[in-house]
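thread: overnight batch results

M.L. [08:02]
morning all. the overnight job finished for the chain we discussed friday. pasting input first so we're all looking at the same thing
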Amino acid sequence: MLRPLCYSAVSILLYKINEVITVINEERMLNEFIELVSVPCPSKDEKQEAEMIMTKLRELGLEPEMDNAHLKTGGTCGNVWAYVKGNVPDAPVLFFEAHMDSVAPTTGTKVVRKDGVLYSDGTTTLGGDDKVGVAAMLEAVRALKEEGASHGDVQLCFTVSEEIGCLGVVNMDKSWIKADYGYCMDIGGAPGEITYAAPKLYDIYVTVKGKAAHAGIAPEEGVNSIMLTAEALSKLPAYGRIDSETTFNVGLFNAGLGSNIVCPEAKFVIDMRSLNVPKLEQLKDDTMALIKEVVEAGKGQVEFEVVEGSPAVSVDVDHDCIKLARRAAEKLNFPVEMKTTGGCSDGNYLCGYGLPCALLATGMSNVHTTEEYLKEEDLYNTARWVYGIIKEAAAK
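M.L. [08:03]
and the structure it wrote out:
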């Protein structure tokens, strides 16, 4: 009696997997991805991309809106939003987000297809960061419409200027978010990888002030800010990877008026981030206290400007947001891996706005370089995963 039951269960599972695989039209999605990356879309100038996406959303029977984020960012357009009304009223409302801009060089992208992998022709980035996310969201909604599938409400958001500080999401009106939880489609790795935690970030702008003097005639009358800075940084207990949760980097330095002048002022910027927020706060306070102590001991002065770069992403692995994405991936036979990251994205700010938000891997590889590439299989599977999550939420 067990064998027929087992066979039936396997048959149902295979049918469900095949259903999701076949509803995604690979040829159509590939052509749309190529179309999306061909449009110039540098940060702060995504207008052509936004207009193309809004046209596609209208063709899907949706009513896209553009917000006014660009009035604050100085860009040519705002974030694009759309709401897909569902037919399962008690399903959770889902939020999917991807950004429209790509890093330079991003104009005139020509896609080269070789052995199941997509590249640019080497003169630009490919733009898979983040057009995979954009294409996946469009194709999944298109499949829902074509299949007449049962689904809950779905909110879509396509943001601007992510690559230069997540300016689109920083300047959005968070009251526009109408979802229970969400997914940021913007991280490397194969579909099935779920990132549930990302760090809080601080940028600390440090100005060390000394005293100018002629370096050859009266150096003893000056206070060299470069040397004070060097002394302070040499006293740091650690830098680079502090531990498994925390990193620390001095990334910018500017000082000096001339080789014959005792340097009166030096400026540098510290990037520090951690998955552990209390640990990061302590590191920030300890670092500034140490620098201040060393500089003042050398008869200099120091000023700090602390800028919070992004809040932390922290979604419990038992949260419905994570479990839903995991179940959908498992039903597609995607290898599931739970991950953390040291990078920051729009997802950090969405979590900071109170929306539980996980990052879903989209297959993007070697991003921010002209060697960027994307496996076709990952492109199509990203759309299958979005579609599967929406269907799974309705079933729940």
